[in-house]
Amino acid sequence: MRVQRQIWGHIPLLHITPNQDAEVALPTVVFFHGHMSAKEHNLHYAYQLAEKGLRVILPDAHLHGERSEGLDEVQISLRFWEIVLTSIEELAFLHKELHKRELVTGEPGIGGTSMGGITTLGAMTVYPWIQAAAVMMGAGNYVELAQAQMAQYESRGFQLPISAEERERMLSTLAIFDSGRNKPKFNGRPIYFWHGEQDVTVPFEPTYRLFKELKNQYEAVPEKINFTREREAGHAVSRNGMLEATDWLAKYLIE
């Protein structure tokens, strides 16, 4: 496995390939990290994927890793949706670069953990070129999740720095990427979910509800949607989940 630290445009990333295939076109995955994490924290996913013959791009999200601006956790949390939407927008640039550099065979898949899983589900609603996805303890109910986050902050006595008009505008924007409101856009593409039932950071039930709703649209291709639930797991992906997710992406990208 070869790991290169690169900057594409303004995005710092780790570029991982099998040793002998750094410059040739390969099946490719763009994998997003979680909130308050960084690109290096998903190298175990990249290792498994590279071992199977895939190229992996691990970008740093806005305000994270090498893009840190010295903000504390509360300041970054208040900009959560700005970060998610920036990652979705930047995925279009990464996609263009992969093709311009002739590094990808076919079209890439995507995946992510926590905030990265949330990003993955939003991206699926706007980019029909995505070939397969792995959502690790993510959520697609953007509007519902944002409303719950704001209510939680306000219950703690935080004065959110947005007006009522700005709040409505934000929720209208998030609705564009909300999986529950855009289910037809998944269009039968392979998608793997992993979620721990004891997760209190990204609640289990809304994601499982989305899976059950999506399943109705996958009746012709039921093998292309999977939900692995672990009864005792919280907000941390098990080794089994990581291995299943990387097997899933390899299966549908190497075909």
Automatic annotation (TrEMBL):
GO molecular function, one term: serine-type peptidase activity
Residues in Peptidase S9 prolyl oligopeptidase catalytic domain copies: 97-244
Keywords: Hydrolase
One Pfam entry name: Peptidase_S9
GO biological process, one term: proteolysis
Residues making up the signal peptide according to the UniProt record: none
InterPro entries given in the database record: AB_hydrolase_fold, FrsA_esterase, Peptidase_S9_cat
PANTHER family: DIENELACTONE HYDROLASE DOMAIN-CONTAINING PROTEIN-RELATED (PTHR22946), POLYKETIDE TRANSFERASE AF380 (PTHR22946:SF9)
Name assigned to this protein: Esterase
UniProt organism field: Planococcus antarcticus DSM 14505
